[in-house]
Every structure is written in C-alpha cells, then in structure tokens.
Amino acid sequence: MSDLIAQRTAAPISELDGGRPGSAAPKARRRRGPGQSSWWALLFIGPTAAGLLVFYLWPTVRTFILSFTETGPFGGDLEFVGFDNYIELFQDPELIGALRNTALYTIIVMIGIPIAVAIAALLNTHGLRGRSVYRTLYFIPVVTMPAAIALVWKMIYNGDYGVLNEVLGVFGIPGNSWLTDPNTALAAIAVVGIWAGLGSAVVIFLAGLQGIPDTILEAADLDGAGPVRKFFSITIPLLSPSIFFVTVISVIGALQVFDLIYMMLGASNPAMPNTRTIVYLFYGAGFLDNEQGYAAAIAFLLLVIILVLTAVQFRLQKKWVHYE
Asked: Which domains are present in the chain?
C-alpha cells in the first residue's frame, strides 16, 4: 500500500520538473552575480568615461588651476597669484564689450530656431516632391568647413564686388561695406551663423515632427481645427522637447563663436571692437599676449556663464512642462 501511494505522488512531482515520470530534472540555469554584471557595465562605459575624463574633466580642472597662476613674458615656470587674474578681468573695460557682443550675437542667432521650425514643417508636408533633395541642401552647411563658409560669405559681403550689394543695387538700395561697418559687422556674421546652423536644427525638428502621432492630428481635423490652429495648439507643444534641445545647443554654440569672426574680419578690421566676443578676448590674451593665467580666467568665466544659462533653460523647461 505504501509503495502504491509513493508511485502516485511521485509522478506529478516529476512532471512538474519538466520531464516524464521517472526522468531526471533539468539543470538550473546559472545566474550571474552582481559582481559580474558590474564588470560588464564598466567594460562598456569605460571608454566613454575615459574620454570624458581625459578630454573634458581634466582640462576643466587644469584651466581652473591655471587661472590662479601667471607666466613670465617668455613662458617658463608658473607663479601663483591668487585671484589677481579674476580681479584684473572684472576691471577690464573690454570684458563688458565682449559680453555685450556675445549676448547680441546669441540673441540674433536664436532667430534661426523659429525659421528652422517653419522649414521643417514645410518639408514634413505630405506629397511634397523632392523632399530628400531639400533636406540635403539644408544640411550641406553643417558638413562644410567653417573656413570655406567664412571665405564664401566674405566675398558675398564685399563692399566693392559683393553679390549682396549687386542684388540690392537692382532694387535701387545702396550697398554697404558690411564687414567693415561697426554697425552691421556683428549682425552680418550672425546671419552666417544662422545659415550655418539651420541644417542640423531642421533635421532635429523633422525627427520630432515625424514622431507626432497622426491620430492626434486626425482628431483635430474632426474637431474642425485649421492648419494654423493645429500648428500652434498641437505641433508646437508636442515639438517642445526638440525645441528645448536645439535651444540649449544653439546657445552654447553661440557663446563660443570665434572662427567666423576671426576668418571674416581679422585683427585689423575697424569693426573689431564691436564684434569682439568673449572667446576672441580669450584668444587675444592667451595666444597673442601670452597671458595664459588671464586667458584661463576668461575661459573659466565663460564656462560658468554657460552652466548658469543652461541651468536656467532646464528650469524654465520644467516649469513649461508643469504648466502644460
């Protein structure tokens, strides 16, 4: 009797183990411990972390340390001077002008964001022919060397034989020496900055527009919303993450502008005082005057400005999302 009970109770247990009655239970899968998972994670993030440490974090720390030192007229050993470089920097009359020019350039460049949104919306129109061609044409400036861009636009802005003055002359508008006039030089360079950064912004906005569900737009059509109402009430709010991202990178890039000003104007240009940005001020102190400590103080000040403005943008974005 006991043998019969044992046979009847053993059969279901063996079947639950994954085999027929009397078959051996399958082997349990060996699980990785937490230590093995950590090693795999370090293996994948190690190269990126090393690159950030070597090329970003250490130069930042090195610049901060260098800002408290001073070099001799012919280089040589560094001498610790405390906060003298920062005191001299904030007493420098050129700093206010450089900050003003940088802020004005940044504000003008921001005009390119709504332009990019409008272009992306047009390129996202269904049934548009040659859409890929237009995307390529708008993206070409992004992959073009800044030196080539500066040389081409320098010829366009030329006061004697520039294309811009020729076009304006057709409509009876007098030309101008755009890059030597202190009143127009910075705005002319900012227009080039808008043109050069338009392609990347359009691509990002196109990706955001294509991620908007068609069902939402179709529901708006059923409610009788027109194209303008749908654009401002549906498209723009749903595109706000892309707009926020483009705004952040555009502000950071505008604050660091140097190459266009250096190649389109040069140091002897009469409009240079009205176009000298904070990075150009850093270039003059570090590479022309060999004041490495003072230049490091300028660079660290720029870093603080970028961090503060980026933090403000993130704060405003959170408030906007909470409001929505």
From this structure: 94-323 (1.10.3720.10)
